[in-house]
Amino acid sequence: MMTDWSQERILVYAPHPDDETLGCGGLMSKAKAAGAEVFVQFITVGDTADQSPKGFSTAEERYAEIKKVADHFRWDDWHMALPGDEYHLRLDAVPRVDIAHIIEASSPLSMSRLRPTVVVAPHRTSYNQDHQAIAEAVHTALRPSDRALRHHPRLALAYEEAADQWRLEPTCSPGLIVELSEKEVGDKIHAMELYGSQCHRHPHTRSELTLRSLAALRGMQAGVAFGEGFHVLRCLA
C-alpha cells in the first residue's frame, strides 16, 4: 500500500508523553516532511517514580519535554486530556465511556472536531494498563456507524512498542510496515533523547539500541533498511 502522506491529517493518541515517539516517531517525521498535518492527543501525565538517578520525574518536567519534542517534530498541535496524579497510571479506573467521549467529541483534538484522515493509537496487547485503556477507548470511538452521521478516519492503525511483545498471549507481527530512512530513524531517536526523564541506556525498552534494532527488524521484514510496524484496524481504499 502506497500512501501519499502529504494529503493526510494524522491524529496520534499517546497515553503518556513519549508513547507517540516510541510508537510512531518515524512515521511522524516522514509524514511532516511530506507535508502532512500531525496532531498528538496526550491523555495523562503526572509526577512519576522512575529509574533515573533522581528516582522520579515531575509533571512540570514532562511538559517541558513535550514542548521540545513538539518543536522537533513540528506538530501542528497537541493537547493533554486528563492531567494530574488522579489519572496518571490509573486510566484503567476511568470509565471507558468517559475516555471515548474525550476521543470522540469533547477534546479540542477530538475526532469530530479535527476530522483526521489517519488515526494512530496504542495496541491493546501492551502490558501497561493505561495503554490498554486507551487502545480500547479508541477502538470504541472507531466503531462502525453511518459515515453521514459520524466521522470515520480513512486509515486506523495501532502502533507497537518494543515491550509490548513481552505479554504471553499470542500476537501477530504488524501487517503494515512504513519504510523509514536513516534520517527518520534518527529523528525518532533524537526525540526520545529530548524526553530526558524517560530515555535510558541499553538494555532498556527506551534505549537508542532498542529503537534502532526494532526499526532494523521491521525493515528487514519488508526488505528495506528500516521500518516501523503497525497493525491495521481499518483501511478504506
UniProtKB/TrEMBL annotation:
Pfam families for this protein: PIG-L
Domain of life: Bacteria
InterPro entries membership: GlcNAc_PI_deacetylase-related, LmbE-like_dom_sf
EC number: 3.5.1.-
GO MF term set: hydrolase activity
Keywords of this entry: Hydrolase, Zinc
Zinc found in the keyword field: yes
Protein name in UniProt: PIG-L family deacetylase
Organism expressing this protein natively: Nocardiopsis lambiniae
